[in-house]
Recover the amino acids of this structure.
């Protein structure tokens, strides 16, 4: 039997998902940051600030920011003196990030097209691995987590910022309505792409709940795992250490 994985609410052959997700992000790359502001009311900036405070990047540390696309997390970590490698499987997203870095006069970042499931870096290379709003789009999450563990040095830390399922009963209903009804319409209005944003909303619902994902992080070899819910779990910061 073929390996079936989720693509939004559909199940597709695993060999097809990477290309399908790639098409989504190629479609949304140019308007990605504008849409993030529109969809979150600007709150994604606060979530990313909080995320980077948890990572605690230090001057001279080697950090891999996977699915780093447009550079939002990398810019924040570089401002604290870290040596950041920005990786993404999608070249269009990287191109947007490179252009934004040039506009801001941010030098010193390394930009590298990479598949999270098959990283081209040597083992024990990085002090920290970050991934923000990207791991739910990976075809095989367990392989991406295993690769994150492999490329980290002993004592290295893993941090993931991702949408999840809120546990606040009243807010959950409102959030579900917004995700499935309004998010695709915003995508059509602002980015001219309803289908891609429908997929992004659906992919959140198919992503493992917080305890399950924490279990996957532990299964990849990480210790001292932790989950920090935001908005009752609508967004969560997951972390773990390679010990």
């Amino acid at each position: 039997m073929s390996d079936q994985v989720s693509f939004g609410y559909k199940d597709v052959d695993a060999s097809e998902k990477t290309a399908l997700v790639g098409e989504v992000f190629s479609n949304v790359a140019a308007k990605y940051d504008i849409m993030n502001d529109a969809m979150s009311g600007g709150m994604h900036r606060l979530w990313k600030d909080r995320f980077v405070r948890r990572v605690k990047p230090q001057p001279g540390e080697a950090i891999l920011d996977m699915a780093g696309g447009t550079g939002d997390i990398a810019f924040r970590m570089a401002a604290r003196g870290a040596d950041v490698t920005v990786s993404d499987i999608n070249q269009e997203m990287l191109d947007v990030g490179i252009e934004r870095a040039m506009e801001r006069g941010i030098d010193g970042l390394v930009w590298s097209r990479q598949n999270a499931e098959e990283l081209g870096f040597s083992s024990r290379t990085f002090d920290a691995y970050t991934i923000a709003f990207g791991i739910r789009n990976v075809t095989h999450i367990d392989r991406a987590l295993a690769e994150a563990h492999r490329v980290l040095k002993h004592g290295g830390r893993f941090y993931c910022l991702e949408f999840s399922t809120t546990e606040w009963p009243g807010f959950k209903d409102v959030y579900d309505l917004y995700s499935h009804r309004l998010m695709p319409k915003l995508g059509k209005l602002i980015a001219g792409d309803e289908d891609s944003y429908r997929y992004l909303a659906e992919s959140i619902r198919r992503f493992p709940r917080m305890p399950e994902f924490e279990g996957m992080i532990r299964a990849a070899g990480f210790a001292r795992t932790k989950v920090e819910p935001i908005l009752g779990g609508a967004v969560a910061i997951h972390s773990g250490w390679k010990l």
